[in-house]
Amino acid sequence: MKLGLGLYRHMLTPENFAFAKQAGATHVVAHLVDYFRGGAHVGPDDQPTGTDWGWGLAGDPGQLWTLEELVTLRSNVEAAGLKLEAIENFDPAHWGDILLDGPRRAQHIENVKTIIRRVGEADIPIFGYNFSIAGVAGRTKGNYARGGAPAVGMEGPYDRPMPNGLVWNMIVDPTAPTRDSGTIPPATHEQLWDRFQRFTDEVFPVAEKAGVRLALHPDDPPMPFIRGQPRLVYQPSLYQKALDLNPSPANALEFCVGSLAEMTEGDIYEVVDTYSRQNRIGYVHLRNVRDKVPHYKETFIDDGEVDVLRVLAILKKNGFDGVIIPDHAPQMSCAAPWHAGMAFAMGYLKAGIQALEKR
Ligand SMILES: [Mn+2]
Predict the structure, then answer these.
(1) Is residue 358's pLDDT more than 70?
(2) What are φ and ψ of residue 104, in 5° steps?
(3) How far does the centroid of ligand 1 lie from the alpha carbon of residue 180, in Å?
(4) What is the predicted pLDDT for the residue at 40?
(5) Does the CA dihedral 45-24-85-78 come out positive or negative?
(6) Is the pTM of this model over 0.70?
(7) 93: which of 14, 61, 224, 228 fits an S-S bond (Cβ 3.0–4.6 Å)?
(8) In terms of CATH, what superfamily is 2-357?
(9) d(Cα 272, Cα 236) in Å, to the nearest integer?
């Protein structure tokens, strides 16, 4: 098992690559969507939180990530002695109408195919994604973690309808927040699964050919509905439905232990065992939580309800040989709250992995 670090777009710097290496990482997962552009956020490096208008502005709909950009990123990561394992998340400006079944859907399918081909050409093996209309929305921030450390959680459902111009919790129409744009009509679970099925049918053959595995993140937070919109994978069994829908080897999981542990059904150790045995995990998000939706809270990695060392042992037993990243971590009181939180999580995971490898 390999240890990695996930970095947001504005953090893809030589200094942070060196930090990852120093913290024991061998791999990096990179976000190319800029969640911090024109939005309201707590801190410059913290997890995006945002407002009813989401995290801020999505990217340029006409400008896809170029092959050159991807190759340069990989080279920069490799220059620090690390490997670029995955790109995480599509830009809502590039693929939003696939989620909404909107008028630009055909163009957005072409966008996704182009991006996947380029990712394959740049020798990046995995693309992580979250097939979600409302995206990561409805989380609150508080001094929830040990010692009053700031962390995210939920304090009840979030049902405020999505305004037009917002997709996957980012603004794709920059003029929408300044006018009364109306709201997006709620879809049904059946419609969402139909959209997902069509997406997999059209995109997975291209991904297979490009040598890229598409790794599906479960819903964060895993509620049946957020902002009136249905969620795809909000119980552990729905992950199996997503795998069974399309047998392509490109159909993989961005296995988020924290989100799975927040779900109201299932035993997290059985869930880890079930999915790691199938050899369909692209990479793992590993963080800890207390309680279930809609009232869970994120915790330090040693401090929640999940026995993270037991999770590592199950992954090891089932021969998982991919990358594990800490996902999120509470912020620690010092000059570098994000880095300290991550370094703590990395040290804990590193020790857990080493203890297993030595056995
Ligand atoms: Mn996650």
Answers:
(1) yes
(2) -100, 20
(3) 33
(4) 65
(5) positive
(6) yes
(7) 61
(8) Divalent-metal-dependent TIM barrel enzymes (3.20.20.150)
(9) 10
